Amino acid sequence: MTRFFLGITGASGHAYAEALLRALVAAGHEVDLSVTEAGAKVMRHELGIEAGTRGERLAQALPSWIGAPAARSVRAFASDAVEAPPSSGTALTGGAILCPCSMGTLARVSAGFSSNLVERAADVALKEGKKLVLVPRETPLSPLHLENMLRLSRLGAIILPAMPGFYHRPKRVEDLVGHVVGKILDRLGVEHSVGARWEGTEAPAEDAGVERPKSAEKSAEKDRSP
Fold first, then answer.
1. Which of 74, 125, 201, 216 has the fewest CB atoms within 10 Å of its CB?
2. Which helix (H) or strand (E) holds 123?
3. Which of 81, 215, 101 has its CA nearest to residue 157?
4. Alpha-carbon span 27 to 57, nearest angstrom
5. Are 195 and 181 within 8 A, CB to CB?
6. Domain for residue 96, yes or no?
7. Could you tell me the residue range of the domain that residue 91 belongs to?
8. Could you tell me the pTM of the whole model?
C-alpha cells in the first residue's frame, strides 16, 4: 500500500480526478487530497460536488461522492494547510498528481512558488525526487505554457496532458476518461485494469502462415518441450 497526494485545481476536466481517486483507492492505496479555491468552483460546476477548500467540508463530501468505504482511504486537507503532512518530504508519499492541472498552478510549480498545499506538495515531490505527474487540460497552448512544461519535464516531472486516444474505439465518455487515467496509473507504477490496452490488429508472423527460418522453428520446439 502506498499513499499518494492528489491535488485538484481550477482546470476543466474534474472527471479525470474523480476516476483517478476511485482507481487509486480500488488498487489498495491511500490518498491525501486537497482542492484549490478555483478547483472547488470547477468541481461544483462539473461534478455537482460542494467540496469547498476547507478540509472538514471536503471530508464531509467524500462519502456521498466516492462512497463511504473508499472515503476511509482518503485524507482531506484544506488548500491552505501548509502544515499538513504532504507539505514535508519526511511524509514519504509515493508521489504527487495534479489532476487536472491549471496553467496557473503549473507556472507557479515551475517557478518554485508555493501559494497553497497543492503547489507545495508538487514542490516537495520535485525536491525529494518523487514522482510528480501533472495533467494539464488546456488548448491551444501558448509558448509560455510550453516553456513551463518543458522546464518541469527537465526537472523530472511527468507532463501527461489529458489527451485521450481513439484507437480503442471508445463508446462512452467514461472510456475516454479511463484511457487517460490508465496512463497516469501506469506512470505511477500502480497495477490496474482501467482503460483499454492496445493489443494490435494483426497476428504475429508465425501465426499468419509465414514460413520461419529452420533455426527459429527448432528454438520454438525447444521452448515448447517439457
1. 201
2. helix 117-127
3. 101
4. 25
5. yes
6. yes
7. 3-199
8. 0.87
